[in-house]
Design a protein that fits this description.
This protein has 19 helices and 23 strands. By secondary structure, it is α+β, with helices and mostly antiparallel strands. It has 5 domains: 79 residues, no CATH class; 89 residues, PDZ domain (Pdz3 Domain, Roll); 212 residues, 2-enoyl-CoA Hydratase, Chain A, domain 1, CATH 3.90.226; 100 residues, no CATH class; 33 residues, no CATH class. The radius of gyration is 28 Å and the shape is globular. The chain starts with a helix and ends in a 5-residue tail after the last helix.
Length: 566
């Protein structure tokens, strides 16, 4: 106990909030750790060292230190050695955490986009304070509440824009359409980003119900069910359902269970969790009546579908309830809970792995066993175990959810990537919206050839130089040849090959016209119809969705995929 009191006196001499945070923890560990054989001895010893180290830094370091910032850096580095989902959430970060779980925050309802040192309005959300104040995508933001924003980070801007609903901010902007500088007074509101931004009847006969789910926030299962209810009311003779989980990073496990309940009966096991503490192991079963268990169901996933998305997709696959279409999902089979810390901070930590109804865990990366360089690797194929679905189809663990029908995305061309990252597609969409008051519905909108030619002419004098992968490979080979003293003897061959590989930007634009055109159309549609317009327009050229519609329209082929051996 004397050691405890001595250490507490040392801590009290330090400045900053660290002392108050760790006093009780150290006292507990020292009281319970009296010998080196005690399991808590290593913890108490290292907390002692940490406290002494922090005291020395605070007392003798040449410049003043920021205790909170220093501790967070240390904690983040410590947690980085575990997995990317175990995070320290400071009081300052609580709003971002709430937004992830609820989809709500206090703000103006617009994203910011940075081009060089300048800040522009990015997307404006429908019916948001930003829209009501007359802000447009492409507006140049000069100041917020008299603070010049040029050069600030997006994080800096977020803290300026977010705040209590009902409070006001003044924004000085240069209007993208009129090119005039004006002052805008914007009243913050409670911004709720819907987890179901789009749903519609689709297919040749408008008898397939399509719902896009973007995140698993509180109440999202109700939103999904309401969307299906609305579509069922509009078309009583539905022939099939499509649930789009692409690019959905997951969220609340309970909501995933409730969404499964839309398609399967009450009392069905959806997911079980197993961790270090047996008392916390749990089984999650569907709690209510099924919405529809018979209509053909297609679930769309890609490599960015993770966590709760994989619970839904994996459960539908294990129960043979629906066909999974797209790319292999991300492979996050870990469960997190949030624990309260002192001073309103929180710790989000991984406590368990989850298992789908067949018993498989889809976790793809093994964070517990890292390579010698500290990098966590993927679970090797030799360790992936085989499981059986309800009717006997084989599914495997350790690698995400493998679709029943695999459709690979077309690779992005370098010219498309460059035009996007240099904001030329964004800028031209602003120009297009300035010149057009309306466009056709987002689900039918497309640019005519003369309109695309106008874009091609507009882009002619813009700097969108880039290197193809082949050119980059040649540069790498040249460096190796120089290093190994082979270059001088083959210099002419290198230069001739370089000349042959030199790309023509105009030809590249023609070669990849359809890809660039679709991206530009999507950006333009968002200017007139917001997020729902971006989604609706993108479905026009959606190979995954086309396959889902084809399968639902071919009952024999659909049923065959859900039989053993397929």
């Amino acid at each position: 106990m004397e050691r405890v009191m001595s250490l507490l006196k040392k801590i009290k001499k330090t400045r900053g909030f660290l002392a108050g945070v760790i006093i009780s923890a150290i006292a507990f560990f020292f009281i319970h750790a009296r010998t080196a054989n005690d399991p808590y001895f290593e913890i108490s010893k290292n907390l002692d060292i940490y406290a002494d180290l922090f005291k020395e830094l605070n007392t003798y370091y040449v410049d003043p230190i920021e205790p909170g910032k220093l501790v967070k850096t240390g904690v983040d580095a410590m947690l980085e050695d575990l997995d990317p989902y175990t995070n320290y959430i400071t009081e300052a970060d609580i709003e971002d955490y709430r937004f992830m779980t609820t989809g709500k925050y206090g703000g103006i309802g617009a994203s910011m986009r940075k081009k060089g040192e300048d800040i522009y309005i990015g997307d404006v959300y429908e019916n948001s304070p930003a829209q009501k104040a007359g802000l447009h995508p492409g507006d140049l933001v000069e100041s917020i509440d008299n603070q010049v924003v040029k050069g600030k980070t997006i994080e800096d801007l977020s803290s300026l824009l977010k705040g209590t609903p009902g409070t006001q901010i003044s924004m000085k902007i240069k209007d993208a359409y009129t090119n005039t500088v004006m002052q805008k007074l914007v009243t913050r509101g409670e911004i709720e980003i819907s987890s179901v931004p789009y749903y519609s009847l689709i297919g040749a006969q408008n008898n397939i119900a399509y719902v896009r789910l973007t995140q698993f926030t509180q109440g999202c299962a109700r939103q999904v069910k309401d969307a299906f209810d609305s579509l069922k009311k509009a078309q009583p003779s539905l022939k099939g359902l499509v649930l789009d989980l692409r690019n959905n990073p997951g969220g609340l496990l309970d909501e995933a269970v409730s969404i499964c309940n839309i398609f399967v009966d009450k009392g069905q096991l959806v997911v079980s969790t197993k961790g270090k503490i047996p008392e916390m192991d749990k089984e999650y079963k569907t709690p209510g009546s099924v919405w529809n268990k018979d209509l053909p169901l297609a679930v769309l996933v890609n490599h960015s579908s993770a966590s709760a998305s994989e619970i839904v997709a994996g459960t539908m696959q294990d129960l043979d309830r629906g066909v999974i279409i797209g790319e292999r999902s991300y492979g996050k089979g870990l469960v997190q809970v949030v624990r309260q810390l002192g001073f309103n901070a929180k710790l989000k930590l991984t406590i368990a792995r989850y298992y789908t109804p067949s018993g498989r865990c889809i976790q793809a990366i093994d964070y517990a066993h890292r390579n010698v360089d500290g990098v966590a690797g993927y679970v090797p194929d030799s360790l992936k175990l085989a499981y059986k679905t309800k009717v006997g189809r084989t599914v495997k663990s350790g690698g995400g959810v493998m679709p029943d029908v695999i459709i690979k995305d077309d690779p992005m061309s370098m010219i498309a990537v460059t035009l996007y990252t240099k904001n030329y597609l964004f800028d031209y969409a602003t120009e297009y919206a300035r010149l057009h008051t309306t466009i056709p519905s987002a689900s039918t909108f497309s640019m005519t050839d003369p309109e695309f030619n106008q874009f091609s002419k507009w882009i002619e004098n813009k700097d969108y130089s880039y290197k193809t992968e082949t050119e980059a490979g040649l540069d790498s080979l040249k460096k190796t040849a120089v290093r190994e003293n082979y270059y001088e003897g083959s210099k002419d061959e290198f230069e001739n090959l370089k000349a042959k590989l030199s790309h023509d930007k105009k030809q590249d634009l023609l070669k990849h016209k359809e890809q660039v055109k679709h991206m530009l159309e999507n950006e333009i549609a968002s200017r007139f119809y917001y997020t729902r317009g971006r989604i609706a327009q993108g479905l026009q050229y959606d190979k995954d969705l086309d396959k889902a519609l084809a399968l639902i329209g071919a009952p024999g082929e659909y049923s065959a995929l859900l039989k053993p051996g397929k």
